[in-house]
Amino acid sequence: MKSDTKKIIPNRRIDLKGEVCPYTFVKSKLAMEELRLGEVLEVIVDHEPAVENVPKSMQNEGQKVLTVEKISGADWRMVFKKEIE
Amino acid sequence: MDFSEEQIKRYSRHIILSEVGGRGQKKLLNSKVFLVGAGGLGSPAAFYLAAAGVGKLGIVDNDDVDHSNLQRQILHSSKDVGFPKALSAKATLEALNPDVEVIPYMQRLTSENIMDIIKDYDVILDGSDNFPTRYLVNDACVLMGKPLSHGSIFKFEGQVTTIVPGETPCYRCLFETPPPADMVPSCQEAGVLGVLPGVIGCIQATEVVKLLLGKGELLKGKLLLYNALTMEFNKVRIRKNPNCPVCGEKPTIKELIDYQEFCQVHF
């Protein structure tokens, strides 16, 4: 499973290291709005609460969470697929 | 247009809302609202519209700030007494949000100037304090097809409705002509609870923001009545009058009217 999700190539990648809530979600959402349906967004964060909050908020908005995984130290990778406008 | 870091922070609580988002916020930033009056109703309405990031606010008011205004007209401060309300409003609002351009009009709206003044605005918010202006604004909005938020207050009571010409009743469907002069309370009889226009003006601003976003349900064909003393809200359905002189099937008003003003309350 993990090796599969690593292969996902995002249409856009944003580095939100140093950002805290709610801006981690606000900026992820703004980036998502620019994508087309079916496209994929990768978000890198190092703010621990965001690892839970951003995917939850994305789901509430109807977007799909493809993966949330630790990549190194405090850094996390989250991948979302745009399901609705 | 991309948001600046400051804008992302300023509008973050809007952007988070699924009904607004970045797209809705950009709509607001590209919107133009015209406010009739920078008084009791116009003050809270303009404050929240500016805070919300409505990109352009036109404000007409030909009065100067007076000490008697400060109990409710929260755009103005003691230091502004004697200065034009439209300019005081501009200074206050632009200090709150530099994204907003405020266009002050220090004149009285008349049948001669209103069409030209409001033609470039998306929505009109009427916070006027007198019948001649209220009818003039209603008729101009109907003739030009501009959405209009109507609000008015008296003592402890207020009312709001949202008029979308061609779709909803207009102010004349409710009250066909201005009341006779002796029915209008004189200046001595009038009073108003200072916080009342705060409530009504905020409801008007809420309607305008929803209208600009295209979200939610508006007070279309509904008159919201508020009584601050009993703390009751009532919503009553209002109907289009097929014989309405301005928006009915055979309108008789095709040109704007300047009614004569008589001594009356000034909110």
What does this structure look like?
The complex is a heterodimer of chains A (85) and B (267). By secondary structure, chain A is of the alpha+beta class. Chain A has one domain: 2-Layer Sandwich (Translation Initiation Factor IF3), CATH 3.30.110. Chain A is 35% helix and 31% strand. Chain A has a 4-stranded mixed beta sheet, covered by helices on one side. In chain A, helix 2 packs across helix 3. Chain B is of the alpha/beta class. In chain B, helix 4 packs parallel to helix 5 and helix 4 packs across helix 9. Chain B has one domain: Rossmann fold, CATH 3.40.50. The model of chain B has no long low-confidence stretch (mean pLDDT 95). At the A-B interface, helix 2 of A face helix 3 of B.
Structure in a nutshell:
With 85 residues, chain A is an alpha+beta fold. Helices cover 35% and strands 31% of the residues of chain A. Chain B is 31% helix and 17% strand.
Strand residue percentage of chain A: 25-35%
**Helix proportion range of chain B:** 25-40%
CATH A-level architecture of chain A: 2-Layer Sandwich
Q: In angstroms, what is the radius of gyration of chain B?
A: 18 Å
Largest β sheet strand count, sense and barrel closure of chain A: 4 strands, mixed
Topology summary:
The complex is a heterodimer of chains A (85) and B (267).
Chain A: H1 2-6, E1 12-15, H2 23-34, E2 40-45, H3 48-60, E3 64-72, E4 75-81
Helix pairs in contact in A: 2-3
Chain B: H1 5-10, H2 12-15, H3 21-29, E1 32-36, H4 42-51, E2 56-60, H5 85-96, E3 101-105, H6 114-118, E4 123-126, H7 131-144, E5 148-154, E6 157-163, H8 171-174, H9 196-213, E7 222-227, E8 232-237
Parallel strand pairs in B: 1-2, 1-4, 2-3, 4-5
Antiparallel strand pairs in B: 5-6, 6-7, 7-8
Helix pairs in contact in B: 4-5, 4-9
